[in-house]
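Hi V.,

You were right to ask for the full record rather than a summary. Here it is.
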Amino acid sequence: MAIIDASTEASTGVRVAVQRLPHADGIDLPTYATPFSAGLDLPAAIDEDVVLKPGARALVPTGLAIELPIGFEAQIRPRSGLANRHGVTVLNAPGTIDADYRGEICVILINLGEEDFTIGRAMRIAQMVVAPVNQLTWTETGSLGESKRGVGGFGSTGTHGVAAKS
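Predicted structure:
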């Protein structure tokens, strides 16, 4: 079995143009924490601390605008450490940035924890994953093909690791 480490060659990735907005001066551009990280940690581009009370939400600017290539999206996701330690998450997770959006990336954070949470300048508040997308073309039909699952949904495939009986 091969061990993956920093010496293993990583993908060259997708080129994305980025514009640092004036209120992000002095904040480093996001980077991948490890060679095989899926997401980049996004910073808070704020001048003053923002205190999120339990149950409160805030739109937090990152000071970044991007130009994605056609056929890609950027997904904004929670950071697991903030969610686990503080109950702070991205409200509309995953948020989607479309390839034709040119405005500032902002993150809707919510505090689901029991204590106030303070967001400081340059704090890593969310992560961004760039992924390919496919746009569909509808083919309207009067009926759909059969499948073993059929119309079962909302837990129909079983609970607690036990498959539902046929």
